[in-house]
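Hey, does this match?
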Amino acid sequence: MTHGGRRLRFVTWNIHSCIDHRGRYTPERTARVLRLLDPDVVALQEANLAADPADDRLLRALAPILPHWLFAPTHERGCLHRPGEVTGFGNLIASRWPIHPDDPLELSHVNREPRQALRARIDLPEGELHCWAVHLGLSLVERREQGRRLADALVQLPGSEPLLVAGDFNEWLPRARSLRVLHRELTRLPARRTFPAGRPLLPLDQIWIRGPLHARSLKAIRDPIVPRISDHLPLVADLALETR
């Protein structure tokens, strides 16, 4: 039996609503960084999209390399850069290949900011890749419950299918209780410090894999422009998808 493989570049990044260090809305600068990284798939947190996607500047700027996207806002909020307009706020997955949505996984905790896992199936030439984008809560109790919900959902997905779970976990301890249940279902790639972007100390942003996926490299991008447009560094994984 012979095995082939596809190389896949994946990026996860908390993009801070594309608000730069001077409070300006600069989605084109965010997209420029992503284009330079040349990803196949991205999972973005704190995306803040226009009510009409056709009018969204971030989606337009990403379209040349990542024309397919999925966005399901956790909630709506007003934005200073769009006076008088209510916009969606949440996770965004974008890809070179077509995306099929699965139902978002509700992760909200009572009296806390709404959260969910955005779940997608991406049509690679070799088959489907599952991709979940998450942004866990700020409180310890909240994250423990969210970890349990994620683990319960993972059990429902066949372990043989390629799966990426990535995002801002707001957790930095390697064996934190909120992550213990995930270690039973997934393999976490090595920790890389991503926050705060100007002087990264904590590995808040993480990538977990399962199935026929193998990590070739992982790095946090420390470019001088990044701290000017987000408080997190982008995390880039070069992966190999084993195929038969």
